[in-house]
Amino acid sequence: MDFQSCVNIKKEWDIVGARQLGRDIARKIGFGTVDQARIATAISELARNIYLYAGTGKVCFEALEDMNQKGIRILAIDSGPGIKELSQVMEDGFSTSGGLGAGLPGVKRLMDDFDITSEEGKGTEITVIKWLR
Amino acid sequence: MRIPILKLHNYLLISIQIDLDDQTAIQFQEDLLSKIHESGASGVVIDLTSVDIIDSFIAKVLGDVVTMSDLMGAKVVLTGIQPAVAMTLIDLGIHLQDVPTALDLEQGLIKLRQELEE
């Protein structure tokens, strides 16, 4: 996969940097304000998960365009501890950090496609897509 | 970065006009509680008209600061939540059910007066 731009997540401020860049890319693709907010929020959740659970990682963006549709693909990747119970983290309200537990199930609802792979001790890779309607 | 907190009679007014990072949000929580303590304010309006993203962390901080202020005896009203932000919050599964809200600053002040029966 060829991603145009990535933001390294190392410090807390990078969460804001990632969502601002993602929102800019989404706007250029032609997304309206509501979808821009959805995309920026999803990026914020993904970047925060990296910062909280893996420490470092990156979030990458790619504009998608084929014959019929346009969209944005976002990849969030880290080499952190991985997720032991994938089904658990996809449940609303499940949190190990004292947060709202809205993160990943929320991201899934905000976006159109959601794909996660995670291996304990190796890391986590989440790819999401939002299509332009 | 610090968010300015203005005092107007016995109310505190805050307009958040920056993209909130986690640290600024936590700092704001502390600053607001100290300001309530120090000023003896009975009501607070937090205006979110210029905020174009509220993720789960910021939502938790805002919800918590409402509860914390309530514990101290000050009522908080959130105002000006953008349509896109409202839709995104519901997608995220965040309902902020016990949080008083109003359309804009003016309505927020009216609501505060009603809640405080002034």
UniProtKB/TrEMBL annotation, chain A:
SUPFAM superfamilies: ATPase domain of HSP90 chaperone/DNA topoisomerase II/histidine kinase. Coiled coil: none annotated. Pfam families: HATPase_c. GO terms for molecular function: kinase activity. Keywords: Kinase, Transferase. InterPro entries: HATPase_C_sf (IPR036890), HATPase_dom (IPR003594). Residues 34-133 form the Histidine kinase/HSP90-like ATPase domain. This is Serine/threonine-protein kinase RsbT. It comes from Halobacillus alkaliphilus. The lineage of its organism: Bacteria, Bacillati, Bacillota, Bacilli, Bacillales.
From TrEMBL, chain B:
SUPFAM superfamilies: SpoIIaa-like (SSF52091). Signal peptide: none annotated. Transmembrane segments: none annotated. PROSITE patterns: STAS (PS50801). InterPro entries: Bact_StressResp_Reg, STAS_dom, STAS_dom_sf. Residues 1-112 form the STAS domain. This is RsbT antagonist protein RsbS. The lineage of its organism: Bacteria, Bacillati, Bacillota, Bacilli, Bacillales.
